[in-house]
Structure formats: structure tokens, C-alpha cells
């Protein structure tokens, strides 16, 4: 492995350590012992859930290829996962609001464990069922846990500012440290112990089962609006009205879809960008480096969110602009450096610069997660939190499915340019959100059981 990779990883590690160790009283939030216990319980559960997810990620494509499926067949399996998340995500989100977020979190564990079990079968139809289950589980992971946390935090009477501490720590550990450890552990199972590509999925199921046990034994139930006189259509209509009547919610949904769509597209693009001529690159080590960069971003977010200034709506404009600029690097390098025709070898000079840019993008991802969670907790109404959050994922999943279907139809520079444009638009929308954040809503959210549905613009 080239020294370059170690240098980048080492520098990022030193910066992250320095940021964490140099925090002063201004960067720390004074909390109560009751909140600390609550926060730590959630972080344990969230880290176990993310471990179950991160263990699977690097080996899904590899497992399918070992079963002998073609690139096209594997692409269809991936589309099935994102498609099921799009089709069923809003339904399970609404059920979470109505039937309880704790139940939804347990359902996530069961659904993902079943998805892991299907990986033992080489039958295409069984694997397709597993991808559909995985798509449903993903929707639950990125809505139900956050919805439970916000509702429980408010129910227990903790200060609103303390919520940002839980968000930043969840991203630091769950999306950073746990991802690195899961990647190394998965590599140990598959390569060092020679247990095969299905071993990480079995390990993921074990972590999910442990997390489910903690949820069942220590979490209380909370709801969005548990009234019995609402069906799913009514909940969907209410969520749509909330989005249409409050520009803040609509802007937040558009910003989230644009950023996450670019982020998921980047996941498919970084490997061919760094090795266009089949250069030998250490995928696992680069992935760990990206996660370390993400930890750097979440550490910065922790500092920013602990202070009253700058506001999250303000600094996120800069984050989106920086992320847009970082994904322009492949286009810039392609125009400045003549492409090499030599196959194989180590990472190129152009690849080194692109890797640094990608680390900057991952740092922006680390800043994005706790910041968007903070804004969602402020602007999305509690009555339909999970439903609205999964509404936001519909355009995201459509976009990713389209990209997957046409990934070979456009040059990689065009794909990066498209992502950069989306991120720039997200910055403009974020500026609009900042401008109206102190203005009153045009139509305040009213709980559905108090709303006159005859006056509902979406009631037909």
C-alpha cells in the first residue's frame, strides 16, 4: 500500500483527535445525569443498528458476484432495494407514527435480520425478496429511530439544545467510528478467517438481535398521533398538507433529497473515478479514510451546534457550496491532466488529488447529518414526523434508481457535474430557508384530529 494512503489517514486521524481533545466549555453543553443516561442508551442502540448496516454494505455486490450473477442482474437487485424503499417507505413511516416508533424500530431489526438470512440462498428470487426487505428496513432506519428520539427527548422534558448533542454523537460513532470498525471486522471475517462473503451478514444479524433486545428491555413507546379515526390515506394527506402549507418543510425536503441523491451517486462513482484504468487501490482502506473524514465533519458539527451562532441554517449554505466544489475535482483533473492509457499500477497523480477532494466531500457529509437532523427536529411536526421524513425519501429513491439504471450511459464527469449542480441548488435553497426561518408559517400545522377536512385543499 502506498505511503500516500497512510499519510491522508494519519493526518485526518490527528485532526479528529485534536478537535475532540481541544473542546472547551464553549464547545460543550452542560447536561443532567438523566439526559446522559438517556443519550448513552440511544447511542448504544443506534451504534448496534448502524453496525448491522455497515457490515453488509461492502459485501453485497461481492456476494452477488460470487453467486455468478451478471452486472445487469446485480443492478436489478440494487434497484429493487431502492424501489421498495420508495414504495413502502411512506407506508411504514405512517404506521410508525400511528402504531408506535418503538414497534417500528423492532420491526426494522426483524426485517433486516430476515434480509440477512436470505443472503445464504443463491436463488435470484430469494435474493430479490431480501433486497425488498432491505429497502423497507432502510426506510425504517432513517426515520423511526430519529422520530422516537425526538419524541422521547421532548416527553422527558430535556432542553431542546441537548438534542443536537445526541445527533452529533450518533453521527460521530454510528456513521464514523462504527463504520470503520465494521469494515475492519468484516474484512477479518471474510479474508483472515476465510468464512466467506456471507459471514458479515450473519454478524450483522447478531448485532441487530442484540440491539433489538436492548430496545425491548429499555425503550418506552411513543407515537405521532395515535388516534384511531385515521387511515393511511388520511395520514398521507395530512403529511402532504403540512409540506405544502409550510415552505420550511418543503425546502427541507428538497435540500435533503438533493444532497442525499448526490451522496448515494458518489458511492457508485468514487471507485471508477480513482481507478479508471483498473489501478490497484485499497478499497477497504479508502472507505475507512472516508469514514474518518466523516467523523471530522461530525466533530465540527458538534462544536457549531453547541453555540448560538452561527445558526445551522447559515453555515449549511457553506457546507453545500464546499461539497459542490469538491465534486468538481474529477472534471477539473480530466481537463488538466491527459488520461493515462496504461492499465493497472497504483493510483495516479490525478487520483491522489481526487481522493483529497472526496475526503472533503465526506467531511461535508459528516457535517450534514447532525445538522439536517437538528433542522428536522425544529420544523417537522411531531404528529406525522416519520411519514413526512419518508415522503422526503421518495424523490431521493427515484433519482438513485434512475442513476443506477443509466450508470453506463453517461461519462463519469457528466455524473459528477450533475451532482455538483444539485449541491449548488441545495445551497440556494438553504439560503432561502435561512431568509424565511424567522417568519411565521403561512399556514400553521394543525393536528389532523383537529383539522377540518372539508377545508383541506387535498381532500377530494
Q: How would you portray this structure in words?
A:
The protein has 2 domains: 188 residues, Growth Hormone, Chain: A (Up-down Bundle), CATH 1.20.1250.20; 210 residues, Growth Hormone, Chain: A (Up-down Bundle). 75% of the residues lie in helices and 0% in strands. It has 17 helices and no strands. Helix 8 packs antiparallel against helix 12, helix 12 packs across helix 15 and helix 13 packs antiparallel against helix 15. The protein is globular, with a radius of gyration of 22 Å. The N and C termini lie far apart (63 Å). Mediates high-affinity intracellular uptake of the rare oligo-element molybdenum. It is found in: Cell membrane.
DSSP helical segment count: 17
Q: Helicity, in percent? A: over 70%
Give the percentage of residues in beta strands: under 5%
Please name the CATH topology of the largest domain. Growth Hormone, Chain: A
Q: Summarize the biggest pleated sheet.
A: none
Pfam family, one: MFS_5
GO biological process, one term: monoatomic ion transport
Subcellular location: Cell membrane
Membrane topology: Multi-pass membrane protein
Amino acid at each position: 500500500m502506498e505511503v500516500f494512503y497512510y499519510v491522508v489517514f494519519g493526518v485526518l486521524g490527528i485532526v479528529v483527535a485534536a478537535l475532540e481533545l481541544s473542546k472547551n466549555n464553549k464547545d460543550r453543553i452542560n447536561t443532567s445525569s438523566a439526559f446522559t443516561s438517556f443519550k448513552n442508551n440511544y447511542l448504544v442502540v443506534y451504534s448496534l443498528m448502524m453496525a448491522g448496516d455497515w457490515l453488509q454494505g461492502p459485501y453485497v455486490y461481492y456476494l452477488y458476484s460470487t453467486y455468478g450473477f451478471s452486472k445487469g442482474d446485480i443492478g436489478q437487485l440494487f434497484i429493487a432495494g431502492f424501489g421498495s424503499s420508495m414504495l413502502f417507505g411512506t407506508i411504514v413511516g405512517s404506521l410508525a407514527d400511528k402504531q408506535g416508533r418503538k414497534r417500528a424500530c423492532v420491526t426494522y431489526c426483524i426485517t433486516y435480520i430476515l434480509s440477512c438470512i436470505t443472503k445464504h440462498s443463491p436463488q435470484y428470487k430469494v435474493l430479490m425478496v431480501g433486497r425488498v426487505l432491505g429497502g423497507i428496513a432502510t426506510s425504517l432506519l432513517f426515520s423511526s429511530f430519529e422520530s422516537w428520539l425526538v419524541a422521547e427527548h421532548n416527553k422527558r422534558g430535556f432542553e431542546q439544545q441537548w438534542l443536537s448533542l445526541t445527533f452529533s454523537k450518533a453521527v460521530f460513532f454510528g456513521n464514523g467510528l462504527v463504520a470503520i470498525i465494521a469494515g475492519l471486522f468484516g474484512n477479518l471475517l471474510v479474508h483472515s478467517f476465510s468464512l466467506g462473503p456471507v459471514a458479515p451478514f450473519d454478524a450483522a444479524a447478531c448485532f441487530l438481535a442484540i440491539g433489538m433486545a436492548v430496545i425491548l428491555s429499555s425503550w418506552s413507546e411513543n407515537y405521532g398521533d395515535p388516534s384511531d379515526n385515521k387511515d393511511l390515506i388520511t395520514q398521507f394527506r395530512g403529511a402532504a398538507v403540512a409540506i405544502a402549507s409550510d415552505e420550511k418543510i418543503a425546502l427541507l425536503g428538497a435540500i435533503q433529497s438533493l444532497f442525499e441523491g448526490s451522496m448515494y451517486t458518489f458511492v457508485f462513482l468514487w471507485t471508477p473515478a480513482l481507478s479508471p484504468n483498473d489501478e490497484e487501490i485499497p478499497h477497504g482502506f479508502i472507505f475507512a479514510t472516508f469514514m474518518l473524514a466523516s467523523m471530522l465533519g461530525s466533530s465540527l458539527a458538534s462544536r457549531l451546534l453547541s453555540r448560538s451562532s452561527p445558526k445551522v441554517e447559515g453555515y449549511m449554505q457553506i457546507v453545500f457550496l464546499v461539497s459542490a466544489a469538491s465534486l468538481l475535482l474529477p472534471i477539473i483533473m480530466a481537463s488538466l491532466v491527459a488520461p493515462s492509457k496504461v492499465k493497472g499500477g497504483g493510483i495516479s497523480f490525478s487520483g491522489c488529488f481526487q481522493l483529497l477532494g472526496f475526503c472533503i466531500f465526506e467531511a461535508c457529509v459528516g457535517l450534514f447529518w447532525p445538522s439536517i437532523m437538528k433542522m428536522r427536529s425544529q420544523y417537522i411536526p411531531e404528529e406525522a414526523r416519520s411519514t413526512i421524513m419518508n415522503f422526503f425519501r421518495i424523490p431521493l429513491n427515484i433519482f438513485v434508481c434512475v442513476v443506477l439504471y443509466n450508470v453506463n450511459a453517461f461519462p463519469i464527469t457528466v455524473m459528477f457535474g450533475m451532482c455538483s449542480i444539485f449541491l449548488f441548488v441545495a445551497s440556494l435553497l438553504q439560503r432561502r430557508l435561512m431568509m424565511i426561518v424567522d417568519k411565521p408559517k403561512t399556514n400553521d400545522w394543525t393536528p389532523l384530529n383537529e383539522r377540518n377536512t372539508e377545508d383541506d385543499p387535498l381532500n377530494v
